[in-house]
Write a structure and sequence with these properties.
The chain has 173 residues and is α/β, with parallel strands linked by helices. The chain is built from five helices and seven strands; from the N terminus they run αββββαβββααα.
């Protein structure tokens, strides 16, 4: 109960985005500012900054969600395929979810799912989560054998694990 209370307090500290001028958004571990612009040809543009057309402000959360989902699908899938090939692991399906409390999942049928908010983390953290879930294609638990397998694929995995514990609550929009 104490641990659950601490987790709730930690997540309460992370504020939901308000989509205002100058607000900062995370993407691949970097922070980018939001600028509200007058032109309305493209609702949301990203080029080392986010540009949101003023007329689309009421749909800002949906636009960001769609943008993050597209980026997450592309980048995380690329990392899954790379590491699966590198380590000779096979998975069945791949998907991006809206999960708020877990960083990934691997089903009994080796279906891999990752939350779209993971795309806000640095690439090294994404790699850790991907490797963690791919390791579950061989070990369906968190036994010593599982962690040994993760360590073989990513020797410094514990740094990423600590980073997620410390900073995971900041990956919100």
């Amino acid at each position: 109960q104490n641990k659950q209370k601490l987790v709730k307090e930690k997540y309460a500290q992370a504020q939901s985005k308000r989509f205002i001028q100058g607000e900062e958004f995370l993407y691949l571990g970097n922070t980018y500012r939001l600028y509200i612009v007058a032109e309305n040809a493209v609702p949301l543009l990203f080029d080392e900054e986010f540009r949101l057309s003023r007329v689309y402000l009421p749909k800002a959360r949906e636009l960001f969600s769609d943008w993050y989902r597209k980026q997450a699908y592309q980048k995380i899938k690329e990392r899954v395929d790379w590491y699966a090939h590198l380590f000779g692991l096979k998975y069945n399906k791949f998907g991006i979810t809206n999960a708020q409390r877990r960083w990934g999942s691997c089903s009994a049928k080796n279906n891999l799912h990752f939350p779209l908010r993971l795309i806000m983390a640095p690439l090294s953290i994404i790699d850790y989560v991907v490797i963690h879930e791919l390791a579950h294609t061989k070990e369906k638990n968190h036994s010593k054998r599982f962690w040994d397998r993760v360590r073989l694929m990513l020797p410094d995995y514990q740094e990423s694990k600590r980073w997620l514990r410390k900073n995971g609550h900041l990956l919100v929009f």
